[in-house]
Amino acid sequence: MNDIDAWVWWLVAAAALGIPLVVTAMPEFGMFAVGGVAAAVTAGLGFGVVVQVLVFVVVSVALIAVVRPIANRHRAQRPQLATGIDALKGKQALVLERVDGSGGRIKLAGEVWSARSLDAGRAYEVGQEVDVVDIEGATAIVI
Fold first, then answer.
1. How many CB atoms sit inside 10 A of residue 49's CB?
2. Which of 4, 49, 104, 127 is a plausible cystine mate for 99, CB 3.0–4.6 Å?
3. What are residue 111's DSSP bridge partners?
C-alpha cells in the first residue's frame, strides 16, 4: 500500500464512520470521521502508517475530550427563547369578566382567554391586572 492508497483508504474510513453518524445521530462517529480525514492528510503528506494511526487516535480522542462536554452542556441548557404557552407564563393580563375559582375571562397578549384563579377563594374584578402562573389547556391560571 503506497502513500496515495493510504490517504484514499483513510478517506473511505472517514466516510464509513460518517454513515453511522447520520443514521444514529451519535456525534462521536463524526469525531472519528474527522480523525480519519486528519490521518488522510497525514498520509497525503507522506508520513508513515504509525504516524497516520497516531494522528487518527490523537485527533479523535481530542475531539471527544473537548467537544463532547461542550455539546452535553449545551444540550442540558434550557432554550433562551420561550415559545408557546411557556412564553405566556409570568405575563400580566387584564380581567375582562370577573375571575374566581370557577372561571372568568382575561385579555392576555392581545387575546381573550378563559381564566380561573389559583386560589379558589380569591376573586378578581373587571379592570384588575393579574399575573399568569400557568396554562391548563385553554385556561390561564392567575393570581
1. 13
2. 104
3. 108
